[in-house]
Amino acid sequence: MQLKNIIQAIASTQDDGKAKKAIMYAGFLVITIGIIAALIGMNASIVFQNISLTEETLLSLGQLQFQQFGRQSHF
Asked: What is the pLDDT of residue 36?
């Protein structure tokens, strides 16, 4: 969730009470999504301990992404 979505949720309300509820709801979503993303990353690092990412692997993954979406690679 981006900052502009939070601002839009706050700015689109009619009164102060609804704006406060929008702030709480948007803040809860941002924190929840951040925690979930962190937990997924921590679990992946535990489950896939034997994966070694070398610089060549990361470069090839980056080039694959650029090729897939039709962009020029900057590597």
From this structure: 95
Sign of the C-alpha dihedral computed for residues 20, 21, 26 and 32 taken in this order: positive
User: What is the DSSP-derived secondary structure letter of residue 69?
Assistant: T
DSSP of 32-55: HHHHHHHHHHHHHHHHTTT----H
Handedness of CA 25, 27, 28, 30 (dihedral sign): positive
Q: Is the pTM of this model over 0.70?
A: no
CB 75 within 8 A of CB 59: yes
Copy the structure tokens of residue 44. Answer: 């992946």
